[in-house]
Design brief:
Blueprint lengths: L13 H16 L4 H10 L3 H15 L16 H10 L5 H7 L7 H9 L3 H18 L6 H4 L2 E3 L5 E3 L5
Antiparallel strand pairs: 1-2
Helix pairs in contact: 1-2, 1-3, 4-5, 4-7, 5-6
């Protein structure tokens, strides 16, 4: 007994199949849920509309930029603790240094006297290094997460952007 064809079934041309495969590949490379690709294909989104939607999804789930940094204080000198408190936003550097025992009439004098010791420059450097390390270890953002880097014929690596 023959089974009749589904009257609602649709077939795709080779170009439509490539278009759907491109959308699935872009969603996969962006590490987004497959349901997004299905939705884009079902809605008939153009390649540009799909790219825009993928970038919107990436932007909406991006980790927030680092605006507050908490510096840990474990067995540090009083000056290093003062720098950490200042970087945490708990108090100004001059007030934190005063609490650590550095004397001066003005904030500039307090900081200048603290700079004459080896503790303050070292504490500022190590705190700055920790902050830079935190920011550089943040996940890649936006387009960089879906970029494709491939070797070229002359064996140097370069990144390219497909606009079509």
């Amino acid at each position: 007994m023959a089974i009749p064809a589904d009257p609602n079934a649709q077939t795709r041309s080779a170009a439509e199949q490539r278009w759907a495969a491109d959308i699935v590949k872009a969603v996969s490379r962006a590490r987004l849920d497959q349901s997004l690709a299905d939705e884009l294909i079902r809605s008939g989104a153009t390649r540009q509309q799909a790219r825009s939607r993928i970038l919107e999804e990436l932007a909406s789930r991006e980790a927030p930029s680092v605006t507050q940094i908490h510096v840990t204080r474990e067995r540090q000198s009083p000056i290093a603790n003062a720098v950490a408190r200042a970087f945490d936003g708990q108090e100004s550097l001059a007030w934190a240094l005063r609490a650590a025992g550095i004397q001066g009439r003005t904030p500039a004098q307090v900081i200048a006297r603290a700079m004459s010791t080896s503790d303050l420059p070292a504490a500022l450097e190590s705190t700055g290094d920790r902050i830079l390390q935190q920011r550089f270890s943040a996940p890649a953002r936006g387009v960089l997460r879906i970029a494709n880097i491939r070797p070229l014929n002359d064996y140097r690596e370069a990144s390219t952007v497909a606009t079509a």
